[in-house]
Amino acid sequence: MQKPRLQLDDSEVERLAEHGPETGLGFYVLSSRWGLTACNVSGWALPLERSRNFFDAFDLTAGLAIPANVQVELLDYTNVAADRSQLTAMMAGLTLPPGYSGSAGALPLIASDTLRYPTRFVRMISGPADHRYVNGKLTVGTYLTTPLDCSFANSGFSAVGRYALPIPVPSSTQIQYELPAGTKIKVGTVAPMFGQSGGGVEVNLVSDTPANQVAVNTLPDY
User: Fold this and answer.
1) 131 and 210 assigned to the same domain
2) How far apart are CA 182 and CA 79, in angstroms?
3) Residue 170 lies in a domain
4) For residue 72, how many other CB atoms are within 10 A of its CB?
5) Which of 51, 102, 193, 200 has its CB 3.0 to 4.6 Å from that of 162, i.e. a possible disulfide?
């Protein structure tokens, strides 16, 4: 019998978005009772370690069909990786699928800046709603990219590769935000990880930030 796919309860996804930093653009990696687990903004959770209960990263990389059977669970996590460098430390000593442990290639979030004028940034996510946009603000620890960089990720699956996402579900919702002058950001390059090439630009917010949602587009999956 095929293992079900793990789906987080909506309330837990919202709790993560409101209180937890993202690990990368549109996803989290956290320590939970299922071991190290990746979760995207739609709530699909993928255990990165072998799981007897749920469809995991080993099943995915073995080419097994993604289960139609979905099991919704409440989340019980102890730690969320705040960035890829912290994630690398969390992965140390674990047995993960080939390529999922990442490789050298980029220094994440190496630059800091303060916006001198209102500036537009983009989020590419796998679901229709961005839970990190709360009461006109993007929550601290949110990742974005730039309009110039996302021109190289012009489909949902190309975003998976360019932003090295752990769950290969097309990030076909493109949301453009305008951030005000004075916003403090960190900027870096996405390192190869999760069997993906990386190489895109990522921007991280160091505090809750007012944002105007100026456009929402749906890209083709491929």
Assistant:
1) yes
2) 30
3) yes
4) 12
5) 200
End-to-end CA distance of the chain: 31
CA distances from 174 to 185, 202, 212, 216, 217 (A): 20, 15, 14, 6, 5
pLDDT digits (tens, 9 = 90+) for 50-67: 999 999 999 999 999 999
- Comparing CA positions, the residue from 41, 200, 187 lying closest to residue 119 is 187
Assess whether 66 and 29 both reside in one domain: yes
Strand-strand pairing, 44-47 and 35-40: antiparallel
Q: Both 77 and 115 in a single domain?
A: no
Average pLDDT over all residues of the chain: 92
Q: Which residues of 115-135 are buried (b: 16+ CB within 10 A; e: fewer)?
A: eeeebebbbbbbbebbbbbee
Tell me the residue range of the domain where 167 lies: 111-218
Question: With DSSP H G I counted as helix, E B as strand and the rest as coil, what are the percentages for the chain, rounded to 5?
Answer: 15, 35, 50
Whether residue 100 is contained in a domain is answered as: no
Say how far apart CA 80 and CA 64 lie, in whole Å: 28
- Of residues 93 and 198, more confidently modeled: 198
Say how many C-beta atoms besides its own lie within 10 A of residue 29's C-beta: 26
Report the predicted TM-score, pTM, of the whole model to 2 decimal places: 0.93
Same domain? For 47 and 120 the reply is no
Q: Are residues 115 and 184 in the same domain?
A: yes
Q: State the burial class of residue 213 (Cβ atoms within 10 Å of its Cβ: 0-12, 13-18, 19+).
A: middle
- Split into its structural domains, the chain has a count of 2
